[in-house]
């Protein structure tokens, strides 16, 4: 997906991917990452997800990356917080308390940007990317996240032809193909659900980078 696609989705308010409630897998499975209090957590393609509030309330430093500045502005407006806005490299940074959101292209991240990261929460990034970009994204993170970073990853699986992504169908074997060699991969849960009229399965993984 090109940047313009997502910017137009936000402009047209076609944001069905935004969840009003906290993701149902976050509370039961986040503790499996065993992160220390105060750890920095990367949330790629974060939008204005309320999951970030939950992570921040646990005491984590939340580092989100989002292409659309409107989403970031709305996040802080809904939090009723006035963020500080400045420039950080190629990104416009919005920050308040223990939440730091970078406006820009996730592929512009560097190891320096992520040097404090200990955990990654990916509910919306991998499933938003077509296959070629998905591989580039996985390879980028393998290069720039610190060793032993723990990830909670959520993917969707549905029968090809039932719908077009995003979100894209990423079955268990595809996750293994993308991450094997760079991560320990543990499947934590799989549950069937209705994806806007299409029978689908959600998979929850814990990934541990070597």
Order of helices and strands: HHEHEHEEEEHEHEE
The average pLDDT value, as a whole number, equals 93
Shape: globular
Please count the beta strands (DSSP E, at least 2 residues each): 9
Tally of distinct domains: 1
Main pleated-sheet profile: 9 strands, mixed
Overall SS class: alpha/beta
> Reading side by side through the largest sheet, how are the strands ordered?
3-4-5-2-1-6-7-9-8
N-end to C-end Cα span: 29 Å
- Percentage of helical residues? 25-40%
How does CATH name the architecture?
3-Layer(aba) Sandwich
Give the radius of gyration: 16 Å
Topology:
Elements: H1 3-11, H2 26-29, E1 40-44, H3 51-57, E2 61-66, H4 69-79, E3 84-88, E4 91-96, E5 99-103, E6 117-122, H5 131-144, E7 150-158, H6 172-179, E8 183-195, E9 198-209
Polypeptide structure, described:
The model has no long low-confidence stretch (mean pLDDT 93). The radius of gyration is 16 Å and the shape is globular. Strands 3-4-5-2-1-6-7-9-8 form a nine-stranded mixed sheet. A hairpin with a 2-residue loop joins strand 4 (91-96) and strand 5. Helices cover 25% and strands 32% of the residues. The longest helix has 14 residues, at 131-144. The two termini are 29 Å apart. The chain has helices spanning 3-11, 26-29, 51-57, 69-79, 131-144, 172-179; strands at residues 40-44, 61-66, 84-88, 91-96, 99-103, 117-122, 150-158, 183-195, 198-209. It has a single domain (3-8, 32-209), classed as Vaccinia Virus protein VP39 (Rossmann fold, 3-Layer(aba) Sandwich). The protein has 210 residues and is an alpha/beta fold. The protein has six helices and nine strands; from the N terminus they run H-H-E-H-E-H-E-E-E-E-H-E-H-E-E.
